[in-house]
Amino acid sequence: MTRGYWQVPLDEEYVPISSFVTLFGHFHWLRLLDYSLPFCLAVDASDLAIGATLFQVVDGLEHPICFFSRKLDAHQKRYSTVEKEALSLSLPFATLACTLAQG
């Protein structure tokens, strides 16, 4: 696979455990999207990897929708802390932009 992403459509009962892989990393879907609610993206970066969680607040509780993680390559490991944090924001957002724009 060289472009886009691959996702297996599943029955409704299997949606919470479904996942898909993109060129930017691996995503696990945990809750169906509710396009009537705002989305939140929490990100973090270390010297070795970046990670993000997409979630929505429902009735005062944060409900994760999917997780994103990716190991940094040799070039990215030399980024400054600010650049790593920016990368941890841009990669998952770029990957999910089409999904989030559907609502």
Can you give the helix content as a percent range?
Answer: 10-25%
CATH-derived architecture: Roll
Structural class: alpha+beta
CATH fold type:
Ubiquitin-like (UB roll)
Low-confidence stretches are: 1-9
Strands side by side in the biggest sheet: 1-2-3-6-5-4
Largest sheet: 6 strands, antiparallel
Number of contiguous helices: 1
CATH class: Alpha Beta
H/E series, N to C?
Answer: EEEEEEH
Give a written overview of the molecule:
This protein has a single domain (18-101), classed as Ubiquitin-like (UB roll), CATH 3.10.20.370. It has a six-stranded antiparallel sheet with strand order 1-2-3-6-5-4, with helices on one face. The chain has 103 residues and is an alpha+beta fold. Mean pLDDT is 76; it is low at 1-9. Helix content is 20%, strand content 37%.
Summarize the structure.
The chain is an alpha+beta fold and 103 residues long. It is 20% helix and 37% strand.
Summarize the topology.
Layout: E1 5-6, E2 19-22, E3 25-29, E4 40-45, E5 49-58, E6 61-71, H1 81-101
Give descriptors for this structure:
single chain, 103 residues, alpha+beta, Ubiquitin-like (UB roll), six-stranded antiparallel sheet
